[in-house]
Amino acid sequence: MQRGKGMKFVGDSRIKQGPTASRIPKDYSEYPGRTEAFWPNFLLKEWLAGAVFLIGFLILTLAQPSPLGGLADPTNASFIPLPDWYFLFLYELLKYEFASGNYIILGMLGLPGIAFGALFLAPFLDNGPGRRPQQRPIAVGMMLLALVSVIWLTYSSAAPVDWEGRAEMDPPVPPSDVQVEIDTEHPGYAVYETSCLACHGAELEGTAAPTLVGIDYSAEEIADISVNGIGTMPPDQFTGSDEELEQLVDFILSVNESVEE
Amino acid sequence: MLQKIYDWIDERIDLQPIWRDIADHEVPEHVNPAHHFSAFVYCFGGLTFFVVVIQILSGMFLTMYYVPDIENAWRSVYYLQTEVAHAQIVRGMHHWGASVVIVMLLLHTLRVFFQGAYKKPRELNWMVGVLLFFVMLGLGFTGYLLPWDNKAFFATQVGLEMAQQVPFIGEQLKILLAGDASIVGAQTLTRFFAIHVFFLPAALFALLAVHFILIRRQGISGPL
């Protein structure tokens, strides 16, 4: 029976090819089982599956707003670069001794080149007639090995990363076009200069540490952070008297207030 | 009325064969999850395409606001995130779609691989598919820079440094991508934007067309 477009349906291992059988592939309709027209029967079901998928996808989108870090600052020397998650395995590979330093070409091009080259040429490397996994143990074994390696590399690259800390260090604060006025006469400025300026910058703009302009903390919180640290900021950055602490907090708040005006 | 329009067009370009080629083919039992639940593995290719369509549509809307320039790129994304109605959802779809499409692509690749569906006569389509995978990774790499935030900037800097270490053509490759031998800046952003929005999508559409035409010509592989 020849129906429809006479679609070729090749490689069905349930159908034995007789010695005299022609090389012309059989039509769908000659196969056992319940075939179904693509239009409209199957497409309606596919549509439904797609809708369920879309709902799940939109829930993900709504639950996890896409992240945005702070405006790129090429002078920021303390930022630890990290690629998007699907490149992490390539990135992690370069940390191995045999794939870095003098062997960087091996780690960067050699190993990934072999892996992706083999993937590209898989039909010619695995050219036996059998399609079932147990009929081609080498190809399947190599793929499983590659898969386990990629998962392991991705995991060992991502596991030690403090994702929340990274996001906290790099908040999406719009760069203020407001000129920050620093009152060097302020009694707190001297304290700031000795305790904070090295990391937070001469104009509180932030260098190694985040900016202190536009922060949303109360006086008590600022005093607490100065003494006890926060996030990656170590404690005891400020080690003066209580009076100096008060002056420091007052200074930081006054700069913030002057910006808000 | 519709029938008249159809007849008018059909008379001139003979729509029937085109229509039959797209819609009038049968779906065999072994790929139909309605008959065998395990056949859901055949959905991954279609879902990949579905997410690609989401990416194209959401990306088209994002370019309505996005400005590929180092002064304004970050600000335009920030504006998009905070001011524009529903733009957070549109950007969210583009952002998460970029990850989901890689996952779906991987699952589709694994399904085809473990079923040995790339064997004769489908070698060509497998290679087209692997090229599509590379194009998709390229889209991910170039798209990651566009918000121009710190993580994008420094990740791209590392990526370009690696490109530079490619033997013989490394320097040229880096200049081609970054626009300069040492600076990652305004040129880099516009080039990545052009690659992300014009060059790679063009390659993607061409390869997708070949991928689908080949599927229609060869049919889906038989059951194991």
Give a structural overview:
With 261 residues, chain A is an all-alpha fold. Chain A contains ten helices and one strand; from the N terminus they run βαααααααααα. Among the domains of chain A are: 83-160, Helix Hairpins; 187-260, Cytochrome c-like domain (Cytochrome Bc1 Complex, Chain D, domain 2), CATH 1.10.760.10. The longest helix of chain A has 26 residues, at 38-63. Mean pLDDT of chain A is 82; it is low at 1-17. Chain B is mostly helical. Chain B has a single domain (23-116, 130-218), classed as Cytochrome Bc1 Complex, Chain C (Up-down Bundle), CATH 1.20.810.10. Chain B has helices at 2-13, 15-23, 43-62, 73-82, 87-114, 123-145, 150-164, 170-178, 186-218; one strand at 26-27. In chain B, α6 crosses α7 (150-164) and α6 (123-145) packs antiparallel against α9 (186-218). The interface between A and B is large, with 87 and 87 residues. β1 of chain A pairs antiparallel with β1 of chain B, so a sheet runs across the interface. Chain A: This is C-type cytochrome. Chain A: It is a multi-pass membrane protein. Chain A: It is found in: Membrane. Chain A: Keywords: Electron transport, Heme, Iron, Membrane, Metal-binding, Transmembrane, Transmembrane helix, Transport.
Fold-level CATH name of the domain at 83-160 in chain A: Helix Hairpins
Strands of chain B, total number:
1
**Helix and strand pattern of chain B:** HHEHHHHHHH
Uncertain segments of chain B:
none
Q: How would you classify the helix and strand content of chain A by structural class?
A: mainly alpha
Class based on secondary structure composition and strand pairing of chain B: mainly alpha
| CATH homologous superfamily heading of the domain at 83-160 in chain A | plastocyanin oxidoreductase
Using the coordinates shown, work out and report the CATH topology of chain B. Cytochrome Bc1 Complex, Chain C
* Mean pLDDT over the residues of chain A: 82
Q: So what's the oligomer here?
A: heterodimer
Radius of gyration of chain B: 21 Å
Secondary-structure element series of chain A: EHHHHHHHHHH
User: What is the number of beta strands of chain A?
Assistant: 1
What is Rg of chain A? Answer: 31 Å
Specify the overall morphology of chain B. globular
Proportion of helical residues of chain B: over 70%
Mean pLDDT of chain B: 92
| β-sheet strand percentage of chain A | under 5%
